[in-house]
Amino acid sequence: MLSRQSLLRAVRTAAPRQSAVLSQTRSFASPANDQVKPPVAVYGLDGTYATALYTAAVKSSTLDSTAKALAALNNIVTKDAKLTTILHAPTLTTADKSQIVAELEKAAGVPASDKTVKNLLKTLAENNRLSILGGVCAKFGEIMSASRGEVEMVVTSAQPLDNKTLNRLETAVSKSSYVGQGKKLKVTNKVNPDIVGGLVVEIGDRTIDLSVSSKVSRMNKLLQDTL
Question: Does the record bear Membrane in its keywords (predicted)?
Answer without folding.
Answer: yes
